[in-house]
Amino acid sequence: MSAESTLHSPPRFSLFGRGPGEWLIGLPTITLLLLVLVIGTGEMLHGQLLRMGESMFGDKDHGVQYFMLRADPEKPACNPNLNVDAEVARQMAERHEGDVLDDLFEASAIDPVARRQAVLVSLEQCKARHDLYQKAAAHLTPTVVAYRTLETSFFGLFQFGTENRPLILLLLMGVTIVATTLGYHHISLVAPRFPRDFKIQAWTMLGASSVSMWSAIRYYQISVASGVEVEDPHIHFGWMTMFGALMLVSAWQTLRPHRPDDAHHIGEGTWLNALKTVPLAGLMTLSSANYFFGADHPSGLAIYTNALMEFPNLPLQLALFIWGGMLFKQSRMVDVFMNLLRPWKLSPEALTYFVLLAAAIPTAYTGGSGAFVMAAGAIIYHEIRAVGGSSQYALGASAMSGSLGVVLSPSLLVLAIVAVNKEVTSDELFHWGIFVFVLTSTLFFVASQMRRERHTIDIAPVRVALPATLSQVPTLLPYIAVVAVVCTFYSTVLDSPLNEITAPIIMPVMMIFIVIFDKLLQARGFGPQSAALAFSMHREKTAEASIRVATMETVGHLGGYLFLILLSQAAGGVIERSGIIHYAPEVFDSAWTAMAFMSVALVVLGMFMEPLGAIFLVSGTLAPLAYKSGIDPVHFWVMVLMAFELGYLMPPVALNQLLARQVVGDALVEAADEEVAKQSFYRRYERWILPCAVMTLALILVSFVPLALREFPDLQAWVKTWAMPELH
After folding, report:
1. pTM, full prediction
2. Residues 543, 514: Cα–Cα separation, whole Å
């Protein structure tokens, strides 16, 4: 059972054709997501309004700038017609009537010449202020007043958004996490199927929400008792409200446990399998709480989870990217891309290679492989299956689809690394990221070709395939036009070209317009046809329905992912405070030993923590140790990104595998396992083995080849000469 199934099931009652789930969960979610878009676009628009205001109303010849007109000018209180001699005499007289003791120490203050000069300077300043006031008042026309009203309104909008981003994030987490809990859709090793599975999930979430609630209360109490005014008390109350709501939902689920209707899951199930259904976030919560409560620091759990509020932009950006991915699923753009490739009759392995290359671009903008897997994993799975790829192979490719592009520009993870590590620059990391991307993609291509049963390469003749591909180009042009119009609007009108800063705002807006345009084309019988019917049948026919369904799908995926991100902060706090890192030597004798230790430790860390929190943890712990041990900072951080990606694919947790299973669906995953139950070991576990093998080999090469080049100058010279002439 999933959040989608719970929320999309036929409602017992409806209002205007919408069930309670859509009103209570879908509507708040889309409102918050649109608010983030409006705030982001409003910020861009306000910057452009300021520039337009300066160009239209600024007067360089008279020294008047638009910022002077954004409020009614206040007339200076000083007298521009001051009699200098009279003022000097008055000040001198006041001085002589003052304290005699002051005169002993400030004899120069009664110097008539100095006093007159001071009065003249003050008079000139007064005249300048009056002159500026008169110029500003003369330029303050009704047109300026109307324009500044519009401009300051947008300023208030994005100022509100900037000041309240933590609150918006908290509201979004509250809605989606509660919905995910209601739908038993939290990320776990195995999805719940039997009554005992649902019981243990409810008990776990009840315990997790209870300790989180108590920690939030203690954190607020300690903050109040400190004697310092509590900063953002509404955030504290928001945490308590969210965890309180989770407690009520989980308590209700324990009193009225869910019993599946699936006839294949008769009986209570076993306790061993039930333990596999424990939500990873719930397990992190209870483990972290056990440490903090045992250390007599009950507020520690709340302190570290609240640290997410210090950088709310990234979770909000991930939410927008996931929403954009769900909207993308509702369009036929993937059909356009696949129809360009289908005439060549590529093997599933070759087709997958091109799909993963294309997937690297959106992954680079999201900066997180997990977000991309949730957004596009299902699309990749169904398209590989449509061309004859096995289920296990398609699942492995879906899980790995986001692992290749995290090192490419403009990856948000790379920018986060640069922000907290002055030893590296984004140019250096992106430069070497290109080589790493070529390496990983090539390794995947070679590995996928080795697993083929047929060793001959079959491809359609160019004379046949090329005309068929060109015939599909007209179906691509309308979508290119929509992308061009949106990008041109933001770049030209708002002076905000598509980059790592603007992508979280521009791309969801782009997908909204693409969905609207696509449904208009579909209603008129235009556009591509889909070969992956199992996937395309889930697309809605109208734009309104598509956006609504995409939002509800976003809720289910986003709630579990945000809860995992939230609690990984607490897990990082446990690692930080426990002093585990101190068991490592202060410095390693050799860079080889240090690199071996680092790569293993970071893979393990990647199994349990989301990337942003892990980057902050590594920056303060392992990174200085690596530098002191002779590892180049750029080399170290490129290796860190690779180790994290391997950790996200490595059992027993394998977060990206879990996310792939979540978006593809448990039924298809179970069918895939049954399909290969009697085949070889590799075929049974291909979705695990293939991605891990590729990324493990890539990690070994990225970790140790640069050390070998440094250790053996002759090898380095050969590589520079023959293999990588740009190496430096």
Report:
1. 0.85
2. 10
